[in-house]
Amino acid sequence: MDELPYKTILCDVLIIGAGGAGCRAAIEASKHNLDVIMISKELVGKAHTAMAEGGYNVSLGNVDPEDDVDTHFKDTIVGGNYLNNQELVQILVENASERIFDLEEFGAVFDRTPEGKIAQRTFGKQSWRRTAYASDRTGSEIMVTLTEAIRKTSVRVFDEVFATRLVLNDGKISAVTAVDLKYGDYILFRPKAVVMATGGAGRIYKVTSNAQLDVGDGYGMAYEAGAELIDMEMIQFHPTGMCAPKSAVGRLVTEAVRGEGGILLNNKGERFMNKYYPAVMELAGRDQVARSIMTEVLEGRGSPNGGAYLSIAHIPHQIIEFRLESMIEQFEDAGVDIRNEPMEVSPTAHHFMGGIKIDTNAQSTIPGVFAAGECTGGVHGGNRLGGNALADTQVFGALSGENAAKYAKTNERPGVNRDEVQKEFAHLEAMLTRKEGISPSDARDELTTLMWEKVQIFRNEKDLAYAVKELRRIEKEVVPNIKVDVKEKRFNPGWHQAMEFEHMVKTARMVAEAALMRKGSRGAHYRVDADPNDKGYYNIIIRKGKDGEMELRKDDVVVTKVELP
Ligand SMILES: Cc1cc2nc3c(=O)[nH]c(=O)nc-3n(C[C@H](O)[C@H](O)[C@H](O)COP(=O)(O)OP(=O)(O)OC[C@H]3O[C@@H](n4cnc5c(N)ncnc54)[C@H](O)[C@@H]3O)c2cc1C
Question: How close is the Cα of 110 to the center of ligand 1, in Å?
């Protein structure tokens, strides 16, 4: 085959992803007088972070003065079922306040207390009211603010550019291959340092609260390049997603609804959380509430669409209208007035606690590759507390940007293996030129259904082993045979889906393999056939071995302050 033409673009720091973490990394890196590029596969400003509703955790003590950094630390560890890397948690809780003040300085407006301080609300499993918010559109406020702040920097922004592979030289980052989705051109970025800020992968599940593009490209790229990933089995199923109408299935009903006093009822009108977690009721951990709802459904007390009722009819309309504005609109579209009628809700795949393993400089195990936000693992352990992810994007976004800049200043740009680059572009081209094969949307349906049915909230050995076997087959037989029907390279959604699909498969396989390895229940990973001898106080690390096979091992949890039980 003839060599495929591509454009080479040099820079110092390349940020892959323009959500909360990517934008914050770009702002920080740009302070170092470097050439910083931020790319995103969708239009900048549209990242999934904009969908975050409930808020940002920070122990300001504005509403409950008793709150402090140590309590935030402890709540995060207990919430994470003791699997969190405690060094990373310390960084999160210590820096969350400075980073929210940065946001205010950039122009973000959070709701206020009567005294004019940032208001804070209750979220699940928190000792005090800690979650700062802008009504129920906190992520949107943050994204609008960050994209505006980026405009005031020298950061070069490339939207609708899809990164496909990290290219290494002698174990260090040397280039990133990409496709310009608007024109169909191939691009080779030649940075000295990279920040991965590619978000999560809820879309590997059929029912999810995540944006369309959250398919796990970052996990797939990091894995292929040889980086270590941690605790990929830890998927948070948010207890309250919409379960009707069909077009809205999976869409999030923010935890703020329960934070503001929402109660869960079964089809008999019973407030069933009383039975499962009487001390905390609806504000039990997300995994606990999700399992409680599913138990009600499995035992025949579910709502017509396989969920439960979430009611706020007892709360004054004025409060609902002020604090849950977008929820009113979201349900109005479904013909439900939440001020007077209950919402029908059921669990939805929501958050990846696992991801790219980072150190306290936000560097992955590949020199020069940093990472921040939902694509990383270790901060949230076995279960993320609501509100901690937005804080994570800002704290680790800034840290990764700063350290990537420092790395770029002190390291030369390694040479790049052009054969490897050509091989990647030829691989992408083949998806378009292949005469026979499998359509990416059919392949995607098969994968997301498999994950939803076999690697879900209640897990068991038989289902997980089946999923692993199927995923290995899909990887071997389907991925190399993906064929896009429309051959056009510009704005070709089928081609985009095809590029995403191999990362989805890789991500799904990491989730299933780790879930199979973890025999006990811990955090969001719940085995109905749990081995009582497996207490689960370890992290599962995954990497691509030298022979190309997936390698898994168990590591000790990094403990600095709170002893494991
Ligand atoms: C509905 C919903 C509500 C939520 N509410 C809250 C909340 O109230 N509080 C809270 O703390 N957390 C919340 N979360 C979680 C939180 O929103 C996310 O964890 C966080 O926003 C992730 O930010 P991020 O910057 O890591 O990734 P994202 O915002 O997902 O951004 C990822 C970026 O990477 C880009 N990208 C991905 N792959 C590629 C590629 N191959 N090439 C180029 N670009 C790529 C995308 O285009 C995007 O720009 C919520 C989650 C959901 C689903």
Answer: 20
Closest ligand 1 atom to residue 392 Cα is: 11
Give 101's contacts (C-beta < 8 A, 6+ positions apart).
none
Phi, psi dihedrals of residue 214, rounded to the nearest 5°? -80, 80
CB 351 within 8 A of CB 330: no
Residues 251 and 209: beta-carbon distance below 8 Å:
yes
Taking 70 as the threshold, does the pLDDT of residue 1 lie above it? no
Residue 8 maps to a domain: no
Q: What is the DSSP letter of 474?
A: I
Strand partners, 40: 159
- Please name every residue paired with 47 in a beta bridge, in sequence order, or none if there are none: none
Q: Are 523 and 535 in contact (CB under 8 A)?
A: no
Residue 252 CB less than 6 A away from ligand 1? yes
Q: Determine the structural domain holding residue 437 and report its residue range.
A: 423-530
Reported as a pLDDT band with limits 50, 70 and 90, residue 53 is confident
Expressed in angstroms and rounded, the spacing between residue 524 Cα and the centre of ligand 1 is 19
Count structural domains, the chain: 2
Nearest atom, ligand 1, residue 161 CA: 43
Contacting residues for 392 by C-beta, under 8 A, at least 6 apart: 21, 92, 372, 373, 374, 379, 380
Buried b or exposed e, range 122-133, using 16+ CB within 10 angstroms: bbbbbebbbbbb
Same domain (yes/no): 436, 521: yes
Residue 195 lies in a domain: no
| Residue type at position 356 | I
pLDDT of residue 278: 96
CB of 39 closer than 6 angstroms to any ligand 1 atom: yes
Residue positions annotated with a catalytic role: 238, 258
Distance CA 488, CA 503 (A): 22
CA–CA dist 427, 521 (Å, integer): 40
Contact 193, 13 (CB under 8 A): yes
Largest CA distance in the chain: 69
Give the CATH number of the domain where residue 463 resides. Answer: 1.20.58.100
Dump pLDDT digits (tens) for 444-476. Answer: 999 999 999 999 999 999 999 999 999 999 999
Give, using CA atoms, the residue closest to atom 30 of ligand 1: 199
pLDDT at 419: 96
Q: Which of 221, 194, 198 is nearest to 211 (CA)?
A: 198
Q: Confirm if 83 and 523 have CB atoms less than 8 A apart.
A: yes
pLDDT at 228 over 80: yes
Q: Given CA atoms 39, 41, 44, 47 in this order, what sign does their dihedral have?
A: negative
